[in-house]
Amino acid sequence: MTSLSLNISNFITLSLTPTNYPLWREQALALAESQDLVGHLTNDDPPPPQYTTPNSNDTTNTENFVPKLTDEFIAWRKKDNLLRGWIIGTLFEEALRLVVGLDTTHAIWTALKDSYAEDSQEYEFTLHQQITYLRKEDDQSIGEHIRTFQGLCDNLAAIGKPVPDKEKVFYLLTSLGHEYETFTKTMLKPPRPSYSELISQLQSHDQRRNWFSNHSNVHNSSTPQVAFYGEQQRSRARVTYMFFPLCQNHIFLIVSNQDQQTFGINV
User: Fold this and answer.
1) Which of 26, 139, 185, 228 has the fewest CB within 10 Å, making it most exposed?
2) What is the Cα–Cα distance from 267 to 252, expressed in whole angstroms?
3) Model confidence pLDDT, tens digit, residues 192-231
4) Are 240 and 255 in contact (CB under 8 A)?
5) What is the pTM of this model?
6) Domain positions in the chain
7) Cα–Cα distance measured from residue 179 to residue 162, given in angstroms and rounded to the nearest whole number
8) d(CA 18, CA 120)
């Protein structure tokens, strides 16, 4: 692929911001490497002598000598300007102000590093702190909590600092709180699940918890835990009955007749 036909968007998909410098840097390096121009960024390929110098052995033309740009410098500058244009094309206005007047790719590369590398390190530290101390809120669903956690992981990945799978498992489990203590202890025992497996098991566990909780609430409201008393006069016998709800579909009936005989019927 020649430089003229190169599609820059295939290499650099991001515009530089204060929070994505590491990832942007990796993409810019990949572009430079593909064109054998990394030395222009790192100054490992410095500019050659810019002008020709008079021949010290030829004293006749020394006075009339006019310096000219060397062919080596012209070729080097052409490559450097090409890479410089590619880099500038990925900058927002804020970053562009930092490089106005800088005439080499290395100077631009250094200015951007000095301005954004430290900000990215602080942002990375902040995200790691948020993941470490994240805790599920009592009024927060497990789905909302997972989305919050995943968002922090995505932000770290966006700056080129993805959280390893094993660490994501540990951080998510320790963020669940006391309501999930048994589940957390079980999942932390080896062999631990992968992050995707943990998400699936956590969602299934939460669905079961919600089902049992809702089922218990319905049962308690439809069959209160008290006995119902009643009397029914039938011919010569007076029957006293008591209803004891055992579960949703069964009631135990205790019947006592005038002869003081007592027996139970499961209805």
Assistant:
1) 139
2) 6
3) 999 999 999 999 998 988 887 776 655 555 444 433 333 3
4) yes
5) 0.54
6) 8-122, 134-222, 228-266
7) 29
8) 6
